[in-house]
Amino acid sequence: MKLNSKKVTVQKSAEALCDFLTDVKNFESLMPDNISKFEVIRENAFVFGLKGMPEIALEVKEVEKPNKVVLGAISDKIPFTLTANIEEVSNNTATVELLFEGEFNSMMAMMIKGPISKFIDTLVSNMAKL
Fold first, then answer.
1. Residue 4 and residue 2: Cα distance in Å, rounded?
2. What is the pLDDT of residues 24-58, one digit of tens each?
3. Residue 124 burial (C-beta neighbours within 10 Å; 0-12, 13-18, 19+)
4. DSSP readout, 63-115?
5. Which of 33, 62, 93, 102 could bridge 80 with an S-S bond, Cβ 3.0-4.6 Å?
6. Is there a contact between 3 and 121 (Cβ–Cβ < 8 Å)?
7. Residues whose CB falls within 8 Å of the CB of residue 2, separated by 6 or more in sequence, listed in order
8. Which domain of life is it from (predicted)?
9. Cis? peptide before 66, omega within 30° of 0
10. What element of type H or E holds 4?
11. Beta bridge partners of 58
12. Which distant-in-sequence residues (6+ apart) come within 8 Å of 76 by Cβ?
């Protein structure tokens, strides 16, 4: 299953945005209002929970400065990646789009498609406010 967020403009350079997304503690400021838990578990990983959803642990898997940051699930139970594709617009402006990719059976995909789409759109909408 692949889901794309909308593309938003952020008032940061591509490099500054990449650095921001590479520092996992910054994700707390991007989370939706219905967050029930956020905890940095190591330098490159965090766990979060949203009300009514299981907790998810993510870690930074890959960084291609300044254009790409890939986060991946730590657990093999729900294998997925969340990729931030960053494009520089000017010295202090960049665009970012999130791509969610995961391997799910069709029943699971139907159940999570709506909540995941809403979640990644919230993340990029909050990035636009940075």
1. 7
2. 999 999 999 999 999 999 999 999 998 877 899 99
3. buried
4. EETTTEEEEEESSSSS-EEEEEEEEEEETTEEEEEEEEEE---HHHHHHHHHH
5. 102
6. no
7. 99, 100, 101
8. Bacteria
9. yes
10. strand 2-4
11. 46, 73
12. none
Token pair 């996992």: residue: 24
* Residue that is written with structure tokens 């921001």 in the block: 20
Tokens 């300044």 map to which residue?
Answer: 66
The tokens for 126 are 């909050």
Specify the residue for token string 């000017």.
90
Beta bridge partners of 73: 58
What is the chain's pLDDT, residue by residue, as a tens digit (130 residues)?
999 999 999 999 999 999 999 999 999 999 999 999 999 999 999 999 988 778 999 999 999 999 999 999 998 888 899 999 999 999 999 999 999 999 989 998 998 899 899 999 999 999 999 9
Q: Model-level pTM?
A: 0.94
For residue 64 the two structure tokens come to 């291609």
The answer to whether residues 18 and 95 touch, using CB atoms and an 8 Å cutoff, is no
Instruction: Quickly tell me which residue has 């991007």 as its tokens.
Output: 30
